[in-house]
Design goal:
heterotrimer; A mainly alpha (about 270); B mainly alpha (about 290); C alpha/beta (about 350); B: MetI-like fold; 14 helices; C: alpha/beta; D-Maltodextrin-Binding Protein, domain 2; 10-stranded mixed sheet; 15 helices; 10 strands
């Protein structure tokens, strides 16, 4: 409404611009630093080169970490998304007692501080002699990501027009066939979105990686943490720049998928 | 409801939820209960760890620091986030999509990238100090902006702003515009209408944002660990230290339980607030 | 239908990814195994990779995975939970007796490891001395101008030697520096007068700009003038000066002489490979090369014949023999470290 653009509007707009700048500009700083030549990270760099990207490409431990993170992320995305989808469908239709309690339980990994979950799992897996294993990381990351997936799929189910299911069933399709050929395809963009989210969250996850990863399951965030604490060379800036681009692309993909699913809002 | 009738034939939905419940039991509830038991069984039943936490000044200080940093960050987020959310809530279409994308960009960036970027920007010969000292000549000595309290707050606000803005934006967009128009038609200036009608109507959103980001801030580990100084030791950092570096698992468990208890207390407060305001929970943090 | 295609594409992508995940990691490639080395990270570990690990991999085909942040409590946690993930660790001197008490070490295999050139005082059943360091007072030459610090007392003298100071966030070396700055003669340093040390630390507590926790941070902080002066290890400074030409210098006066050892945690998974790696790192010529690159003193005395007079001058052993340095007392610290750490943590928060 046009009348709202008055004095408080101007003040708000100034604050908003400054805030958005605050949110975005520091991130962009890593890009020129990554192209700077000196290892002492002066800003702005006095000399430019691709030195750090070359070092990154030539370092097998970073490539190994990237591969580990990707393997972990894809495994987590797969398990988490399947789990989230069937859980969302199961909960969504359930109308009986205890529904609210179950929903709260399913969402609770999102509100408990990560460090608490982290040390609990560290304790558990230490007792089992499994710290440093891929299994431990997969369990931890699946726990953290599937609640997001449940939320995303749940909102797709809420928008879903059940008359389509009724139509299919009235034409003789059984419940499984209906689920597989009508419901799932229509909510599939949301399922894909939750898969992308799960991958991205796992790929970027730090605390579990610190507590549960071992020398043979080094993830990119664990290596970055070690780098920031122990090394501080601009190789970290190069990694950061790569990650910035990588997550932006993934988020753009997720956004496109999300829009497709909105478009499927059949009233 | 025809939906329920048709699909209950489908199959008991509860078995679909069983795998998730199994995962939660074994990898979430179970281990946390293990922590709880470890905190009081070391080896026999003992409350010594909790006693230590609540009587030793050093540990009380850590709890206090965690609170203080979370409160300060929350207040800054609200102060800065409210006008930003207001502007965002008044936009539509492409502009809105672009603004949302910018606000969410840090949200989707790896936290270590964010922290590293702040170290570069805030350090003694970092971007800010260089501009202020060399380019503009405004100050003679560099400002101490990182590896201290300031650095931690800057880092935490940077992390907590996007969710705060999103919650506030959602609350603002659900305010019925006609109420504002009604106020104005009754003679209120736009300014009065804003402060005496609009802002109070967004109060549930403000409360939701405040409590949620406060809770998030309480559990922070990475940001204070990398951006803080000698005194910026939070509960999460201490828990990590006790567990992985000192292997005091009993004591570390007790600390974790305390942090968990404070978080749950905060959540209970949040739900009470939401219920009192009559707002629908769940929409904001979905 | 479009949505079916989406679903199918997504499913295909996920399936491909799952297949990728099913491919086991590196060990499936033809290897004679791996060995995991835990050390101090940063420039030291990068130099170790250049001098030791890469050549070891080439010679034996055994892959070396090196990780930073070696800490005794982590070793203890690993051994006690039956999950030893590290095969060779670079241990502080005081960790050897502490580890022996807690039964954390494997006996070294001296059939594989040749102890001949290493001074007998630096070898026992469980560990072998590998490198020597000097804990020095380092500074940025541009920042201090014409008044460089000369001793720990300079670090305490904020008026005479202004500038941002850095100190290690822990009692180790800090207590010694505090006492030496307070005027305690080096030969009367041990046993440490702890109360006097903390009183001395109180005097500069608020003037320390960064209480750093990780050793590799320091040269970067000094070079960027985030810090003017700081306690650090001589090798960090030598490395950065050589690699980057940074304007850094150090004072050897009253520096603390320390020795690092190599040891094998109990129940290490790759014990045999661990012994081989230790012997590789014990080679005098390679230790000399490391010394040339980084100023890390060799544990194997046979290395000195490969070093020129000038190269030896960069090393802690040289300055120790000249009488400039103070020997760090591992035995005292083995007994007192826990108490000191607790007291430090309490003192820190005041």
């Amino acid at each position: 409404m046009a009348e709202r653009r008055h004095a408080s509007g101007a003040f708000s707009r100034v604050v908003a611009v400054l805030t958005v700048g605050f949110l975005v500009l520091p991130l962009l700083v890593v890009i020129p630093i990554s192209f700077g030549h000196s290892s002492l990270m002066s800003f702005p760099p006095q000399q430019y080169s691709l030195r750090w990207y070359e070092a990154l490409a030539a370092d097998p431990s970073w490539l190994g970490a990237a591969l580990t993170s990707i393997r972990l992320g894809v495994t987590v995305a797969l398990i988490s998304t399947v789990l989230a989808t069937i859980t969302a469908i199961g909960i969504f239709r359930y109308q009986g007692p205890g529904k609210a309690a179950m929903q709260a339980l399913i969402l609770s990994p999102l509100v408990v501080p990560v460090i608490v979950i982290g040390v609990a799992l560290y304790y558990l897996f230490s007792m089992l002699g499994m710290t440093g294993s891929m299994t431990a990381l997969v369990c931890a990351h699946t726990l953290l990501t599937f609640p997001y997936g449940v939320v995303v799929v749940n909102s797709a189910l809420e928008r879903f027009d059940t008359r389509l299911e009724q139509a299919a069933m009235s034409m003789g399709a059984g419940p499984f066939a209906t689920l597989w050929r009508v419901t799932l395809p229509i909510i599939s963009p949301s399922i894909a979105v939750s898969a992308v989210f799960a991958f991205l969250i796992s790929f970027d996850e730090v605390v579990m990686a610190l507590l549960l990863s071992g020398p043979e399951t080094l993830t990119v965030p664990k290596k970055m943490w070690d780098g920031i604490r122990f090394d501080l060379t601009p190789v970290i800036a190069a990694v950061s720049a790569v990650l910035l681009v990588f997550s932006s692309v993934l988020v753009a993909v997720a956004e496109i998928l999300r829009r497709r699913s909105q478009g499927k809002n059949q009233r | 409801m025809s939906r329920a009738v048709d699909l209950r034939a489908f199959s008991g939905p509860l078995w679909l939820v069983a795998p998730a419940l199994l995962l939660l039991a074994t990898v979430f509830v179970g281990p946390i209960l293990m922590l709880l038991s470890r905190s009081v069984m070391d080896p026999g039943f003992t409350l010594a760890h909790y006693e230590q936490i609540f009587t030793n000044a050093a540990y009380l200080r850590v709890i206090w620091i965690s609170f203080e940093i979370a409160v300060v960050s929350t207040l800054v987020c609200l102060a800065v986030g409210y006008p930003t959310a207001y502007v965002l809530s008044r936009t539509e279409g492409t502009l809105r999509a672009v603004l949302l994308g910018l606000v969410l960009l840090p949200f989707w960036t790896n936290i270590l990238v964010r922290v590293y970027a702040w170290i570069i920007v805030l350090q003694t010969r970092g971007a800010i100090n260089l501009v202020l000292m060399d380019e503009l000549g405004l100050i003679a000595h560099p400002l101490k902006l990182v590896f201290n309290y300031t650095g931690v707050v800057i880092g935490m606000v940077h992390y907590l702003l996007p969710p705060a803005i999103l919650i506030l934006d959602a609350a603002m967009r659900s305010v019925d515009q006609r109420l504002i128009l009604a106020a104005q038609s009754l003679g209120a200036t736009p300014r009065r209408a804003f402060f005496r009608v609009f802002v109070p109507l967004t109060m549930p959103g403000i409360q939701a944002a405040a409590v949620l980001i406060f809770i998030m801030g309480l559990g922070f580990f990475v940001t204070p660990a990398l951006l803080g100084g000698r005194q910026e030791l939070t509960m999460a950092m201490l828990i990590n230290h006790e567990f992985t570096e000192l292997i005091n698992w009993g004591f570390g468990s007790a600390l974790a339980v305390v942090l968990l208890a404070i978080t749950l207390a905060g959540l209970v407060a949040y739900y009470r607030l939401q219920r009192r305001a009559g707002a629908r929970p769940g929409g904001a943090h979905g | 239908m479009n949505m079916l295609k989406n679903a199918k594409l997504a499913a295909a992508a996920l399936a491909a990814g799952a297949a990728l995940s099913a491919v086991p990691a590196a060990p499936a490639l033809a290897q004679s195994g791996t060995v995991v080395f835990a050390g101090w990270g940063g420039s030291i570990q990068r130099a170790q990779r250049a001098v030791f690990f890469d050549s070891f991999e080439k010679e034996t085909g055994i892959k070396v995975i090196d990780v930073p942040d070696v800490q005794l409590p982590k070793i203890q946690a690993m051994v006690e939970t039956g999950n030893t993930q590290w095969d060779v660790v670079q241990a502080l001197g005081m960790w050897v007796p502490q580890g022996i008490k807690a039964n954390l070490w494997e006996k070294l295999d001296f059939g594989v490891i040749d102890r001949k050139g290493v001074p007998p005082a630096l070898v026992d059943d469980y560990s072998i001395g590998n490198s020597t360091y000097g804990m020095v007072l380092a500074y940025n030459t541009r920042a201090v101008g014409d008044k460089p610090p000369t001793s720990w007392a300079s670090l305490w003298d904020t008026a005479g030697h202004p500038g941002r100071r850095g100190m290690f966030d822990g009692p180790r070396y800090s207590l010694e520096a505090a006492l030496l700055a307070d005027g305690v003669p080096p030969d009367q340093l041990y046993p440490l007068d702890v109360d006097r040390a903390f009183k001395s630390l109180d005097r500069i507590k608020d003037d320390v700009a960064v209480w750093w926790r990780q050793w590799p941070q320091v040269p970067v902080l000094l070079a960027s003038q985030e810090l003017t002066m700081s306690l650090t290890s001589n090798t960090r400074i030598t490395s950065v000066r050589k690699e980057e030409g940074a304007p850094l210098a150090m004072s050897w006066n009253q520096a603390l002489m320390t020795v690092d050892f190599l040891a094998v945690p109990r129940n290490a998974r790759n014990k045999e490979n661990a012994m081989k790696l230790i012997q590789w790192m014990n080679d005098p010529e390679r230790q000399a090369e490391l010394a040339r690159m980084t100023g890390i003193g060799p544990g194997n005395a046979d290395s000195f014949e490969f070093l020129s007079e000038q190269e030896r001058a960069d090393l802690a052993t040289y300055h120790y023999q000249k009488g400039e340095m103070v020997l760090f007392d591992n035995a005292w610290w083995a007994d007192n470290e826990q108490a000191m750490t607790q007291r430090w943590n309490a003192w820190k928060l005041q």
